[in-house]
Amino acid sequence: MRHYLSSLLLLSMFVLVTIGCAEKSSTTKETTVSTPGGTTTVTTKKDVEKTGDNPPAEQP
After folding, report:
1. Local structure of 45: helix, strand or coil
2. Are 30 and 22 in contact (CB under 8 A)?
3. Which of 10, 12, 47, 57 would give a disulfide with 26, using CB separation of 3.0 to 4.6 Å?
4. Residue 59 and residue 44: Cα distance in Å, rounded?
5. What is the pLDDT of residue 4?
C-alpha cells in the first residue's frame, strides 16, 4: 500500500509539472495591402518563448 501511494504521489507531481510547461502564448498580426495590381495579405505569428510564473508581455 505504501509503494502504491508513493507512486501515485510521484505521478501526480509529474503531471502537474508537465501541464505547467504546456501553456504557450502567441500573437497574430494580419496586414492587407491593396494596390491596382491586386491585394496582398501578410500574416505574422509570434510565439512567446519564455514561460513560467511571470512571462514577458506580448507585443503585436
Report:
1. strand
2. no
3. 47
4. 12
5. 80
